[in-house]
Design brief:
The structure is a homodimer of 216-residue chains. Chain A is mainly α and 216 residues long. In chain A, helix 1 packs across helix 2. The structure holds a DNA duplex (18 and 18 nucleotides).
Chain lengths: 216, 216
DNA sequence: GTCTATACTCTGATAGAC
DNA sequence: GTCTATCAGAGTATAGAC
């Protein structure tokens, strides 16, 4: 925080507090108090409290702008991976993605605000649920055609895999996140719930189950 | 609403509005305005706005008080059911449970408030996630012992089944619930998203997949 | 039990001096 | 760009007449 300018410090503090208490339960006074400036000073950097949330979502937008599905990516992937390897990769990506303290906080804001905020709802539905399912079902479809995966509806298989990941997110990131994900902005190495032994074992168990079920 | 006394009308209206906008975004004025009384009149029936939420959660508590696990229920169940029939029963229960308009609204309140409210968080974690998983894994364990289910960790199997149910809840009850579940208090037959053809097909697909994967 | 009137607090936001 | 001072509005809640 020390090396940030005031605007950045306001934004980081807002992310921290919104992730902890939700947008509505954090006042401009709370934010500026934590930053160490007066309320009115915030308005030299942001035109309103709402703009803080907008900027946070803009950042998420930018993070996701690079995530489109190249039509031929599935074809490339199946040349070097079997279903189990692909799923391991997905979990690695998930861990890396939600291992970034800043992103995990922003996703928690999305989770909290999705019932009130249309943009948060869209992020959640599209980027956290529907897009991954679509991507995985395309890869699975290609693997079925190649004959290295059981012949079934690829969408069903994608849901069998990814609904478990969402379960982990819902149960251990959203619900228990006060325990894990909300860390001081100054401590870069946040404890990732996925790294805990119990969840590692849950994931391993599920992967073993799916490896068997997905085999031809 | 016509045949209710004022206290009941206030409570039903509060459930309706909290489910739509969340506790914080509904004012006492909103509630009393919808009921057709003055703000101050509410305090003849409830000592505070907070008490409204408490009463709603008390109702949920009562609904769940009858739901304990008899130690021998799993034994009884497996005498008459195979894994597929048991899972169908679970889904039926889920549909019936979330088909009641009042309960679906209250669960939406739980989903919204669980990030802020410790009691809501506990309801969600215990009654919606952990308890069903425990119950199912016990039944699956008995079925494995009986030899009518694949020999695997029953907890893994329960998660494979129930994380999909939670996915349906998360994706179609929570996220899209403005479309389906929030109905006028006067219309008793709320449209249940689970009854839609798409979701019926998702469930059927997943059940076919699991029937095969759970077979010895 | 319902009303009118009002108290008090907190909110986001602005004006203008420095 | 930060401060002091201030504002209007909305929030929950209470007192007391009817």
């Amino acid at each position: 925080m020390k090396d940030m300018n005031t605007r950045e410090r306001i934004l980081e503090t807002a992310i921290e507090l919104f992730a902890k208490h939700g947008f509505n339960d954090v006042s401009v006074r709370d934010i500026t108090g934590a930053v160490g400036i007066k309320e009115s000073s915030l308005y030299n950097h942001f035109k309103s409290k709402q703009q803080l949330l907008d900027e946070i979502f803009n950042y998420l937008d930018r993070e996701f702008s690079g995530m489109s599905i190249p039509e031929d990516e599935a074809a490339k992937l199946i040349e070097v991976m079997d279903p189990a390897q692909f799923m391991d990769m997905c979990i690695m990506n998930f861990k890396m993605y939600f291992g970034k303290p800043r992103l995990i906080k922003i996703w928690r804001i999305v989770s909290i605000e999705r019932f009130r905020n249309a943009r948060a709802n869209e992020f959640f539905t599209k980027n956290l649920v529907d897009y991954p399912l679509l991507y995985q079902s395309k890869v699975f479809e290609a693997m079925i055609k190649k004959g290295i995966m059981v012949n079934a509806d690829p969408k069903v298989l994608a849901r069998a895999f990814y609904s478990f990941i969402l379960f982990i997110y819902m149960r251990y990131f959203e619900v228990d996140s006060s325990e894990y994900s909300i860390t001081e902005a100054d401590s870069p190495e946040a404890v990732n719930p996925v790294d805990s032994p119990e969840i590692q074992e849950m994931i391993k168990g599920h992967m073993d189950f799916l490896r068997r079920a997905f085999t031809v």
